Here is the input.
Amino acid sequence: MEITAAMVRELRERTGLPMMECKKALQEAGGDSDKAIEILRKKGLAQITKRAGKQTSEGRVACHVDPDTGRAALIEMLCETAPVADTEDFQRLTQAVAETAAKLDSSTADDILGQPMPGADASGTIGDFLHDVVNRIRENIKIGRVGVCTGETGYYVHHDSKKGVLVEFSGSCPGDVKSGVCMHIVAMRPPYLKREDVDATAVERERELAKEQVAGKPENIIDKIVTGKLNKWYSEIVLLEQPYVVDDKKSVGQALREAGPELTISRFERFEIGGD
Here is the structure.
């Protein structure tokens, strides 16, 4: 069957792939455009395997709250280079993954990839769309970390879409406090929520260091100085004890208690592309 320029052009419009690849696929498929798309998708899978070892240090962070369940998901979508992260295809894929993660009880990458692509005009699964995007862009693209929270949640994604946070509060929280705490976490990067979460070995190491620093001081004040140094250390690494960026005269925990006597944070997720 003769493969005309119009057939090649139509397939290119449907797939976004180069004209020569579309022509080869049509020739292999005997002019059947649907079959040609499947051939191109299989080649896309080969492309994914080929590029799987490439470093993915760029990407985007996105958050979505499901209006039906109230579940919220924070996800990171990874790629090789910054320009790809700004493409329309990559942004659409990122948002689709976030929306789907918020709906699922189990939100692993494999679970998400097997779900239908959201959108009235979409067809196939999220995995199918990812394969199509990889086939067009020729970069390693994958789902990174996924975090899901329920109940009273707040979130913030920085304007560069490189970092974001999702916070689960213990109860009702005023909107200004939610946004303030979320921006605080993005800016201050606390590794722990509360001091009980800090590794005991790290605490003991910090305690011994503090003791070494006050060696020779009178015995009756050593414990007080060591305790003070430990408290200062906790205030640097523990979210609830960090000075609140909105008002550094109080800690994050104090700001929450002022908003509600029993109010605290149950858990949080902070993702940063290229960071911890």
Notes: The mean pLDDT is 89. The first helix runs from residue 5 to 15. Strands lie at 58-65, 72-79, 142-149, 152-157, 163-169, 243-244, 247-251, 265-272. The CA atoms of residues 59 and 85 lie 5 Å apart.
